[in-house]
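User:
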Amino acid sequence: MTTPSSTRIHPGVYALALTAFAIGVAEFIVVGILPAISNDLGVTLATAGGLVGLYALALAVFTPFIVLLLGRLPRKPVLAGLVAIFLAGNLLSALSSDYSTLLIGRLITAVAHGSFFAIGATVAASLAPKGQASKAIAIMFAGLTLAMVIGVPLGSFLGNAMGWRLPFYAVAALSALALLATLFWLPALKTGEAGSIRTQLAALGQPAIWSMMLVTILGFGASFAAFTFITPILTDITGFSSATASSLLVVFGIATLIGNLAGGRLADRLGWQRALRVLFVLLAAVLVLLGFSLSSPVAMVVLLFVWGVLAFGMTPGFQAGMLDTAGRYTPKAVDFASGLNISAFNLGITLGETAGSYLVTHGQLALTPWAGVVAAVLVHVPLAWLVWRGKRPAVGAGAQAGAQA
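Assistant: Predicted structure:
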């Protein structure tokens, strides 16, 4: 018989979720204030879009190797230190007076962001009751999606009304609260059990790890060719005012929160592979409808909601999938593999933003959803390979996190 205490989520997971909330606001707030930054700093919209794409690229490049260096250190001080660095990066962004300084602040923030999520996901899974790793990861990532509901729309409104620097000051304040929550709520966790650096780097030679990364890159990135430029889409094509466009980000944000929590349950119930396969098919269909409906205000409101549910409903499946894959094939490099998957999330954002920026530069803003359709179709190839590969004997014994996921 299952007792309430055996199914209760550890409060440390909520500390991780609070930090994820601050990170989510910092990462996505630029989308809502992109035109304001472009106008104030005297750069083109496409150049300002680099604050999204280059942020994601820096996160993707540096995260695995920082996680590698931190692999054998105690988890709690490592996570607290990363939150402190994240706070410093946002303060620099808020105080910046030119594009270069703002970009440097964003890059500092990105480095802390990626490492926190890579290590935090494995910590969340380790704190979860048996069989609920995906749920714990979903709760942590719910902080990220809750930022889409509250933080990003509110920050966009305030940033456009009172100056784009204000949201960055607010994120710095949130980071201070997150640091306190980490210090008080997260338990004193044992030192990481990662293998040697050489053992962890061996994960780079495992085709299943690369395939899982490709699933995340294409699946998550499918939304970002259009989402990076969602504000100009809503104002220049659909015809909404900038204030209404900011408000509509609430619709998308509520959908991401619902999708993330539902996606965690779906991954636990169906298995992450089947859950992702279903979500990819539905996402491709919604992006097709979006491509045909950009000039329809009513259709856009409805599709924004459905799009948000699907796009972020995949998040727990991606991370649970990597923990499962690493536990099966590289059990001594689970943290490092988790870092690689955080890189994959952000390579997906970079891929989407790059495709979107190319289309915008050539005057084809309305075609951005179609770039996502292509990615949502192609992602079935590496996923099918992983399903096939999973039917063969595993290379190593499953790790605890993988078994839970």
